[in-house]
Design brief:
GO terms for molecular function: acetyl-CoA transmembrane transporter activity. Pfam families: Acatn (PF13000). Keywords: Membrane, Transmembrane, Transmembrane helix. It is a multi-pass membrane protein. This protein is mainly α. It has a single domain, classed as MFS general substrate transporter like domains (Growth Hormone, Chain: A, Up-down Bundle). Helices cover 76% and strands 0% of the residues. The protein has 17 helices and no strands. The radius of gyration is 23 Å and the shape is globular.
């Protein structure tokens, strides 16, 4: 990677591009359940497919290998990035020939296994890119690592979800593109899921070639749901830019957490009354506003969270260090997602969302009231307090030796 650690445009563009690739994979994976539901999949099937996301919560297991094992001639990050990107491109290109038939026939287990592999590769790439970004921006502004991740992954997720769901839809493209242009109606959208998967595969392969050559190591219809998310994406792209210069990321995390809890109330009420409002003209404008606010707050929270992680990471083991911290965050999300999807079958269908939101809101308020002072204390700690030093190792070793001697005396 480039040796210059300043926040140059080329460094920022490089990290954002790598995060976009991650986001496209994650967005594509999040779109698959919507295609499955269209072809008759159940909530239980969605819960099964959700297990494909678990590598992001388990990446700590192999993150140390990515930090320690590498070929010096290629460099620490490039040694892993190139094979990971290459394998990802080949896997995506291979499944593009079968994915449509797997979805139509509800091959849930097979799809789960395939996307588990894709998530594994994406999680491994995330370890490499996180470590590279932290090292690259550590000397100038660590918050750029968080900002690059938020912008890149958000835009990539937009391409893999909203963009795909909207323009893959024949209904949307016939109404809003072909009809205004006086083009004949078609039974397909501007492109198919197969075409998009191949596009993502080619993007991975192109970036791989560029790294080798240029970089030296250092409740709504699915098309309407995608259309609604287009303006929402703009809000999530703006959010990380607001706090890109902050030196107090946990303060922003606390503020956004409170706002997120408050916003849950009108959002839950809106979902509950959706069946009565969906036929009215004001339904989608309100939906866009509520989701945009929700995603904006969530992105502030995520960016602040990652920004804090980036500010305290030890540069020489940054990949493993930040993976440890992010893994703990991802693990809670992954476990809860699977549990909620399975529990949805047990709750009263008419009130399942309201019950879940109410319970989570109460738990959130309890957690925040107990943790606020801890957040303030953690924010005040110097970054060096989080680093593993030789003095720390000597102190630990000395303590262990003293304990052994005391045990022997006893």
């Amino acid at each position: 990677m480039p040796t210059n650690r300043g926040t140059s445009k080329s460094n920022i563009c490089l990290t954002i591009t790598l995060y976009i690739l991650q986001g496209m994979n994650l967005g594509l994976a999040s779109s698959i359940p919507l295609f499955l539901i269209y072809y008759g999949a159940t909530w239980k099937d969605r819960g099964t497919f959700n297990f494909a996301k678990y590598p992001f919560s388990l990446k700590l297991l192999w993150a140390p290998l990515i930090d320690v094992l590498y070929i010096k001639r290629f460099g620490r990050r490039k040694s892993w990035l190139i094979p990971i990107l290459l394998i990802s491109g080949v896997v995506l290109l291979s499944i593009s020939f079968f994915i449509q038939s797997w979805i139509i026939t509800n091959r849930i287990v097979l799809l789960t296994i395939v996307f588990f592999v894709i998530y594994f590769l994406t999680a491994s790439e995330d370890v490499c890119v996180d470590g590279f970004a932290i090292t690259l921006f550590a000397a100038s502004n660590p918050q750029w690592a968080s900002t690059s991740q938020s912008i890149g992954q958000t835009f990539g997720r937009f391409l893999g979800s909203s963009f795909l769901l909207t323009f893959e839809s024949a209904n949307f493209t016939n109404r809003f593109i072909r009809k205004p242009l006086s083009l004949p109606y078609q039974t397909t959208g501007l492109f198919s899921l197969v075409h998009f998967v191949r596009f993502v595969a080619v993007a991975f392969l192109i970036v791989t070639v560029c790294l080798i050559i240029f970089v030296r190591d250092q409740g709504v219809s699915r098309e309407n749901l995608g259309l609604v998310n287009i303006p929402v994406t703009l809000a999530t792209l703006i959010a990380p830019l607001i706090i890109r210069h902050t030196k107090q990321p946990l303060d922003w995390f606390a503020r956004s957490y409170v706002l997120y809890l408050i916003h849950a109330l009108p959002l839950a009420a809106y979902v509950y009354f959706t069946p009565r409002m969906i036929s009215f003209g004001y339904y989608y404008p309100i939906l866009i506003i509520l989701i945009a606010i929700s995603e904006f707050i969530k992105m502030l929270q995520t960016t602040a969270n990652f920004g804090f992680f980036a500010s305290i990471c030890q540069p020489d083991i940054s990949g493993t260090y930040i993976t440890l911290l992010v893994t703990l965050s991802n693990l809670g999300y992954a476990l809860n997602s699977s549990a909620v999807l399975y529990a949805a079958n047990l709750l009263p269908k008419k009130y399942d969302y309201i019950i879940a939101v109410s319970a989570c809101l109460l738990l959130g308020l309890l957690w925040f009231s107990l943790s606020y002072q801890t957040l303030k204390r953690l924010q005040k700690l110097a970054a060096s307090e989080w680093h593993i030093t030789k003095e720390t190792n000597i102190s630990v070793a000395t303590t262990l030796e003293e304990q052994v001697r005391n045990d022997q005396n006893i």
